[in-house]
Amino acid sequence: MSPKIAFLGAGNMAAAMVAGLLKNGHPPAEIACYTASGQSAQRLAASTGIAQAHSIPALLDGAELLVIAFKPQHLATRDPALVEATAGKLIVSVMVGKTLAQLRAAFPAARAWVRAMPNTPGRIGAGVTAWAALAPLDAADRAHIEALLAPLGRVLEVAEPQINDIAAVSGSGPAFFFEFAAALSEAAQAAGFPEKLAQELVVETLLGSAKLLAQSGEPPEALRNQVTSPNGTTLAGLHQMEAGGLRQIIRQTVLAAQARGLEIARDT
Question: Could you tell me which residue ranges the Pyrroline-5-carboxylate reductase catalytic N-terminal domain spans (predicted)?
Fold first, then answer.
């Protein structure tokens, strides 16, 4: 029997997780969401068929685990009703930056605390999710974590200090990837392609390249070199990337995301 899963928050990450659960056959009647305003929860419930709870006690009634999916800055102003309502529950946070110690302080009566960092490709079961627990989980709670995260894609258990770093790579990485895709599409249009054809070329090229990287087992530099002929078109483009400092830009991008995660962790 599928456990009841409650979502406190109904934004993009909650929607991606709900989509993954439903795609894997989790009954919509065993998923509920709640937001203080009710607006995003109403939209998520209407688009997925899950339940919209209208109070925190109703959200958590019968739930085995609660997914904290609101913005990290809202943890400090959480509803006081959560302390009592989360007694004995398994808490799973997808908030960036907030530590397991902060979760325990916020929900002191819970039975266990877990941080997870899924990413939006989990919406189609193609994500990667890292997670860490404050203390070793018993078999039942590990099964609940598996039921929650496995439908999203690959699942990795890690030490908590790695969670923030993972957030900067796989958590934020899809946005960086989509930005690159948008830039490549714009470049294709500048080269003379109509928008629709440029978009199709970019999507299929990136999709095929990612599959080749995943299936070949070769490092990306080796695959890059297989495309690159001496004095050819690819080499000309790669020289421009190098001149523009692409790798340094990507490095700075990830480190900026990592640093912001640490700042969020320090905020109260």
Answer: 4-97
Is 72 marked as a binding-site residue? Answer: yes
Residue 13 annotated as part of some ligand binding site: yes
> What does the domain layout of the chain look like in residue ranges?
5-159, 173-266
Q: What are 182's two structure tokens?
A: 């948008």
Establish whether 8 is an annotated binding residue.
Answer: yes
**Residues sharing a CB contact under 8 Å with residue 135, sequence separation 6 or more, in sequence order:** 112
8 A C-beta contact, residue 58 and residue 33: no
pLDDT in tens, 181-221: 999 999 999 999 999 999 999 999 999 999 999 999 999 99
Residue 241 annotated in ligand binding = no
**Does 244 belong to an annotated binding site?**
no
Q: Answer yes or no: is 10 a known binding residue.
A: yes
Class of domain 5-159: alpha beta
Residue 177, annotated as binding a ligand: no
Number of helices and strands (H, E) in the chain? 12, 8
Q: Is 11 marked as binding a ligand?
A: yes
CATH number of 173-266: 1.10.3730.10
Each residue's pLDDT tens digit, 43-86: 999 999 999 999 999 999 999 899 999 888 888 878 888 889 99
User: Token digits for 128?
Assistant: 């990667």
Residue 12 annotated as binding site:
yes
Average pLDDT, the chain: 93
